[in-house]
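User: Hi! I'm working on a homework problem where we have to compare a predicted structure to a textbook description. Could you give me the structure for the chain below?
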Amino acid sequence: MSINQFEVKIHKMGSGFYQCKFFDPKTSTRIRKRFPSLKDARVFKKSLETQVLSKGENVFSDLRISQAMQNFIERFPGTKVRKRPSYFKSFIDTFGIYKVVELSQTDLRQWLLDTKSKGDLSDKTLNNIRSQFFGFFQYLIEEDYLTKNPIQGIRFNRNAPPKRSRVVLSIGEVREILENSKTFSSETLYPYLSCVAHTGARKEEITSLHRKDVDFETGLIHLRKTKNGKERFVRISPILEKVLRDHLASHNHHMLFTTFGHDNNSSSDGDLSKLMKKFKEFFPMVKNEWGSHALRHSFAYNFLKKGGKMYQLQAILGHSSINVTVDLYGQLEAQDIECPSPYEP
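Assistant: Happy to help. Predicted structure tokens:
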């Protein structure tokens, strides 16, 4: 039977139910489904005939998203579909059990919006997540499981303003924060803020560090839990070395930070937020909206101001490409030109 000849027939049963009858185009097997009303049967008939016309015989495929993803990764081991591990896991947890032909654009859009809400993400980040899965759906089209890429029509504002204002602190302001945190919480907040300030690493990269990740012999910190899943090393500065040696000597736990680390023997990440909030209440600043990420931005700005190169900053911060670094910090670098006007002597 050709796809164009596919038809769902309806007839009323003696029990009062309505039966839809059709042949699977792939196997020629007769399939019957019962419905309590004629309306339900007609809705099913229209939906299935439309799907078969648009997607072909693979409408009847039992292939699940989880298996299709495994096939895709095995065929294309260099794919970037796992570039952001947390979103990849969320995608599989949400859709893994779906049949490939069941996953709709509406489902994907809702998942992206839920992801945005849970992670407080920007539209730019959502577009990046969307791109992460684009190739997977193109593969399903090439394998004739789909006729259209369901994620292709989903777009978010690429030029949306940042979700939160970027706070950049001067060297003096960062030093002030570190000195105050030493007074406020020398055993917990001070070593944490020192790590972020002196490495430019993300909050999650620092709070997930283990004792073994700090190597004083080589002078390197091994960052394993990164945003893009790629491990990297950052240099331990002389000031940070003293802070870390003192901190590690204060406990024998395998996590570097025992108060808000990421394992079963430590408190939740919310404890860090509460501690930061209380600290800023005790030591308010003009730029009091600063946070862990502001120290990362400040590291980048002050690194460039000191004469550091953009490609060096990319490696230190762990950006996937130099373009990301330039997009984020190229403007900051331009702001530091003492006299940008070409008409001034």
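For your comparison, note the following. Confidence is low (pLDDT under 50) at residues 261-267. The chain has 13 helices and six strands. Good luck with the assignment!
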